[in-house]
Specification:
Blueprint (H helix, E strand, L loop, with lengths): L4 H22 L7 H33 L3 H25 L1 H4 L1 E4 L4 E4 L2 H71 L5 H16 L7 E2 H16 L8 E7 L5 E2 L5 H10 L9 E7 L3 E9 L12 H12 L4 E7 L3 E9 L1
Parallel strand pairs: 4-6
Antiparallel strand pairs: 1-2, 3-5, 6-7, 7-9, 8-9
Helix pairs in contact: 2-3, 2-5, 3-5, 5-6, 5-9, 6-7, 7-8, 8-9
C-alpha cells in the first residue's frame, strides 16, 4: 500500500458511515430539524471519531505494538467504551425527543425507547468503532510492512545486480586489453582497428546497457562486434560460425546476458581451426530465445586466475529470469557447449 493508501481507506470508511447516517436520518417519515441534524451528526462525529482514533493512534501503537501489554490494552478498551457510552447516554437524555424516540410502524405513533436499550445500542456502536479501528490499524500496518519488505528485497536485488554488472564489465575489459596488448606487442596493423572496435563495444556497455532492458537486435549487434574484435587477434581471422534464425527484432532482453558465453568460448576454446569452428546459434521468436555456443576445447588455454563470467551470468539469470530460463552445459572430453533458453 502506497503512502496515500491509508488516507484513502480512512476517507472511504467515513464516507460509508456518513452515507448510513444520512439514509437513517432522511429515510423515515419524520423530518428532522436543522438543530436535530446538527446534534446527531455532531454526536457521531465527535464521540465515534474519538473512539476510533484514540484506539487507532494511541492504544494500539503504544500498548500493543510498543509495550506488548495486552491486558492493559483490554482494560483501556473497556474503560474507553464505558466513558463514551456514559457520554452518549447523557447526550441522549438531554435530547430525548430526538435520540430516544422512534416511529412505531404498527400503530403509526411516536414512542419512547427505554434507556437501557439505548445503552446496549451505544455499547454495540462503540464496540463496532473499536473493532473496525483495530482491524484497519493492523491491516494498514501489515500492508505497510509488506511494502517496506518488498522495497528492501528490491533494493538488495538491485544492489546485487549492480555488483554483478560491475564485475562483468572489468572482466570483459581486462580480457580485451590483454588481446590488444598482444596485437601491439606483435606490432600488428590490426591494433588500431581493435582499439576502434573496443571503443564501440565500450560505448554500448557504458551507455545502452545501463537500461534494465535492451532490444534483442542491439544485444546481438554487440555480440557480433565482440566477435569481430576477437577475429583481429588471429592472423587469418578466427573460425566462427554465427547462425541467426527466426525473428530478431525489438524483443526485450537483459543487456550483456549473452556475451559471457561467447567470451568463454574464445577464452578457453580453439578459435582458429576452420574444420571445427566456434559455433554460435541464435533462434528467436516473440516468446522464446534459444542461444547456444559450442567450441572445441583447448587444454593449453587455461585461466589460472579463474573467471567470473559464467557464474556471474547464471546468477543474473536467477535474479532477472526466475523460472523463465533453462541453462544446459555439456562439458565433454573434446567440446564445451552452453545452451540457454529464455522466455522473453
Amino acid at each position: 500500500m502506497k503512502n496515500k493508501g491509508p488516507l484513502a481507506v480512512h476517507l472511504l470508511f467515513w464516507m460509508l458511515i456518513l452515507a448510513v447516517l444520512l439514509w437513517d436520518t432522511f429515510s423515515s417519515n419524520q423530518r428532522p430539524t436543522l438543530y436535530e441534524v446538527a446534534v446527531k451528526f455532531g454526536y457521531f462525529a465527535i464521540i465515534n471519531l474519538s473512539i476510533f482514533y484514540i484506539n487507532y493512534t494511541l492504544l494500539i501503537p503504544i500498548l500493543v505494538k510498543q509495550k506488548k501489554k495486552y491486558g492493559l490494552y483490554m482494560v483501556s478498551i473497556f474503560m474507553l467504551i464505558a466513558i463514551m457510552v456514559i457520554i452518549k447516554t447523557v447526550v441522549a437524555s438531554l435530547n430525548t425527543d430526538f435520540f430516544l424516540t422512534y416511529l412505531n410502524e404498527d400503530n403509526g405513533k411516536i414512542e419512547y425507547l427505554e434507556l437501557t436499550k439505548y445503552v446496549v445500542f451505544a455499547i454495540f456502536v462503540s464496540g463496532f468503532f473499536v473493532v473496525v479501528s483495530a482491524l484497519l490499524k493492523f491491516a494498514i500496518d501489515w500492508f505497510g510492512s509488506e511494502r517496506i519488505q518488498r522495497d528492501l528485497v528490491s533494493e538488495k536485488r538491485e544492489m546485487e545486480l549492480q555488483f554483478l554488472k560491475s564485475q562483468l564489465n572489468p572482466h570483459f575489459l581486462f580480457n580485451s586489453l590483454n588481446n590488444i596488448y598482444s596485437l601491439a606487442y606483435q606490432k600488428s596493423d590490426k591494433t588500431a582497428d581493435a582499439i576502434l572496435k573496443l571503443s564501440e563495444i565500450m560505448r554500448y556497455m557504458i551507455y545502452e546497457s545501463n537500461d534494465s532492458w535492451v532490444s534483442l537486435s542491439k544485444e546481438i549487434d554487440y555480440v557480433q562486434s565482440y566477435i569481430e574484435l576477437q577475429k583481429l587477434r588471429f592472423k587469418d581471422g578466427a573460425a566462427v560460425e554465427l547462425t541467426l534464425n527466426g525473428e530478431i527484432d525489438d524483443q526485450q532482453v537483459v543487456p550483456l546476458i549473452l556475451i559471457s558465453f561467447v567470451e568463454n568460448a574464445f577464452k578457453h576454446g580453439v578459435a582458429n581451426d576452420p574444420n571445427d569452428p566456434i559455433r554460435i546459434n541464435i533462434i528467436a521468436n516473440q516468446k522464446i530465445l534459444h542461444f547456444s555456443v559450442t567450441n572445441k576445447k583447448n587444454k593449453y588455454n587455461k585461466d589460472i586466475m579463474g573467471g567470473v563470467g559464467l557464474n556471474n551470468v547464471e546468477r543474473r539469470l536467477q535474479l532477472l529470469y526466475p523460472e523463465r530460463y533453462k541453462l544446459n552445459i555439456v562439458n565433454s572430453a573434446t567440446h564445451y557447449t552452453t545452451e540457454l533458453m529464455l522466455d522473453i
